[in-house]
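SAMPLE LOG
Freezer: B-3
Tube label: C17
Construct: single chain, 100 aa
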Amino acid sequence: MNNIQPQQGQQGGFAPHPGYQQEVAPVISMKEWLVTLLIMIIPIVNIIMMFVFAFGEGNPSKKNYFKASLLFAAIILAIYIVIMILFAGALFSALSSSSY
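STRUCTURE (predicted):
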């Protein structure tokens, strides 16, 4: 067994190995968010840009936001398709059972 004790940090937590630095993503400025939101209101372009922002190079926070947005959009689309299939089935059933 290895008997190495972790180093205690200044605030009661445990510090990582000496020389280890955690890389922190830069904060996204308000200007960059405004440009992003302006891009997102353009039809068709917004769908393409969601994939670019989610899977391209860039800020990890922005990438995670757009990955979550794409997942949410896919779930909503799947629910919409199921509802439309059920509605179409009910409509065709009602039309085929009625007598004209």
